Known about the structure:
Layout: H1 5-15, E1 21-26, E2 29-34, E3 37-43, E4 46-50, H2 52-60, E5 65-67, E6 78-81, H3 89-104
Antiparallel strand pairs: 1-2, 2-3, 3-4, 4-6, 5-6
Amino acid sequence: MAFDRGLEERLYEYFETRNDLVVKKMFGGLCYILSEHMCCAIIGDKIMARVGPYHYSDCLDKPHVTEMDFTGKPVKGLVYILPDGFESDAELKYWINLCVSFVDSLPPKPPKKSKRKKLPKIKEIES
Length: 127
């Protein structure tokens, strides 16, 4: 898995105050998850940003932003930001704030159901 370690450090500094952050290896990079919702990811030297459907079109009009087409089809609400789009700390902060704002607006996820199958009760045998 190859991803930009310098960008990883910059994102850790940004998220260091969040106690709901989980970082997982996904998509061949690192995925940043807040309150069980994917927020953004580092894919190679790009940021995959979850900006939401409302800001999606406006984001695509910005320089250094492309459709997120990881599966071969664009996914509305997710964009790739090329390295020139987050060179400065202010640019990185803009993009991450946009992602965090969208993710924080989402409702909490319902508790996960246990995948464990319940075993049938064993009848007691009378002797």
